[in-house]
């Protein structure tokens, strides 16, 4: 059954997230290929920028402190998308859902201690080639209200 | 030393999806969807077992460009379509090509293919600032 287009415009959030230094480091190193074990990430893979995990190196660099790897944004910016998928009134069949497309725009770097608030809403619901498409657009702002990340999240619900 | 970039410049970045990478990425990202950590759920979905989070593949495409420009803080935009899941034990080769250098911004198109030559991303574009 097609998703009801009356849900276009439905909003989710705000969701607030505070960036923790160690979480940010963990994300960068694990995405970069590190193997985690108790209390250590092992040797940082060579291609991972020290700006992402070494406070010492980062202090000498352009940002003065470690920064988030850009796609760390998905950790918090995904929340309106997840909320839409889980919305019982919308009725998404999660077993048939795949993540179809993703766009992220970064308007500034993200640093430890940033308190970020994400809101989002359903911007498109349509059916194409027998599949349902659910598009959620998100905006994340910092504590000063400045936009930091914008996202466009597209889920595809395959036919039964 | 300012590095210059030109349209047509290319780069390659190779990443292994080791057997436990979906589990590691689940912990780091909070994406605990069972299709990424429970092989039985992966089988129910029509795969041999778990599949890697698409957002991890997106992250690797961003990483390929971040390594190329030498600064992850310069990435401004990424857009991808997920065309095929990455599976544990897959090797993904990212090949980037600079398509525009204008207005302080570098645009790159990135292809990502598994070891069978099948694309796992389509239409991947990553933009960075130049300074």
UniProtKB/TrEMBL annotation, chain A:
CDD domains: R_hydratase_like (cd03441). Residues 7-149 form the FAS1-like dehydratase domain. Gene3D superfamilies: Hotdog Thioesterase. It holds the Pfam family FAS1_DH_region. This is MaoC family dehydratase N-terminal domain-containing protein. It comes from Corallococcus macrosporus.
TrEMBL record, chain B:
InterPro entries: HotDog_dom_sf, MaoC-like_dom. One of its GO terms (biological process) is fatty acid beta-oxidation. Residues 23-115 form the MaoC-like domain. It comes from the Bacteria. GO terms for molecular function: (3S)-3-hydroxyacyl-CoA dehydrogenase (NAD+) activity; 17-beta-hydroxysteroid dehydrogenase (NAD+) activity; enoyl-CoA hydratase activity. This is MaoC-like domain-containing protein. It comes from Corallococcus exercitus.
